Amino acid sequence: MPFPVNVFANADDFGYSASVNKAILFCFENEYINSATLLTNTPGFEEAVQITRDNQCVKNIGIHINLAEGKPLTNLGEAFLNADGCFSLQKTGKASGFFTKAEKLALVKEISAQINKGLSQGIAITHIDSHYHLHTLPGLFNLFLHAAGQFKLKMRLAQTYREGSYLKFWYRQYINSRITARKLNYSDRFESVNHFLSRGLFYNGEQKTEVMLHPDFDPAGTLTDHFDAETMVSWLNYLKQLHKG
Prior knowledge:
Elements: E1 7-14, H1 18-29, E2 35-38, H2 45-54, E3 61-65, H3 89-92, H4 101-119, E4 125-130, H5 141-151, E5 154-155, H6 166-181, E6 189-191, H7 193-198, E7 209-213, E8 215-217, E9 223-225, H8 229-244
Parallel strand pairs: 1-2, 1-7, 2-3, 3-4, 4-5, 6-7
Antiparallel strand pairs: 8-9
GO biological process, one term: carbohydrate metabolic process
Pfam family, one: YdjC
InterPro entries: Glyco_hydro/deAcase_b/a-brl, YdjC-like
């Protein structure tokens, strides 16, 4: 069920769990997606790597850098962790968070470790993004931009459509201009499935658009999006319409 060649349908959270891995493979096999990003500090990482090695349809694999949950790969220190030694999203995900030089160095080391863990598996890594879009935050953006340049990887843009605050939209335009100026952008646009579909987009010239999904199987065995179930329903309906056309 192919879709326009200028669309990257990316599955986030590859490696999160066995059910997510199974769902992402299913989506690749059925051409519901053509890209995915891999978590390297979660229980399903090794299985996701093996799935990638064993299945030629699994392609365009990136690293889904995770500073939001689970344990870090490096000795990050307590500044970003909870009492259990896992990432605290409250500490890393503050929109206005700015960090000391030592904290930035620790975060750079962790980001690099997660990328290197993916690269060490012999997988052709193409791009990076982040769990909960932390790479777009003011205190973290430059660290991710540096990592993308250092490892010569493409990077997910911030959302490219206006939603609510004009200030947020301006900020996202600004950081996206910095990504594209270095030719590190993975696409020309980054949109939610719902916004992508709201524009009635079947083909958009030469612009490349990335849309994001979170495939999983629910307890009944139905393919879903574990972040927003309606997203998967809408995406599959869109693909059916394309196939009929």
